[in-house]
Amino acid sequence: MAGMDIYEDSRTVSRSDLAAWLRQLANQLESDGRLFYGAAGAVTVADTVRCELEIERENETEVSVEIEFSWTEPARVKVADEEQPSKDDEAAEPTDATPHAAS
């Protein structure tokens, strides 16, 4: 299954604004473990994460720094609807309450 983008933002900011944004992310992680994004989005970060730091020279004048962290969420448990028996369950149950005589 391919990855699904949840949110992406790209902008040009000053070095001090970048530092403030990184501090804000760090504070969110430290306080309640959620990262807030967009108008009303948030993602809960696991207690243990895999981290990557990549510093790369793109060409003679451009350098990029990528910070990535990822984690695995616990599998979601699917709850069966017990109130609605399936067609197979209905067919397996006797519909006639009268006992059948053996031949």
UniProtKB/TrEMBL annotation:
This is Amphi-Trp domain-containing protein. Residues 75-103 are annotated as: Disordered. Residues 6-76 form the Amphi-Trp domain. It comes from Micromonospora saelicesensis. Residues 75-89 have a biased composition (Basic and acidic residues). InterPro entries: Amphi-Trp_dom.
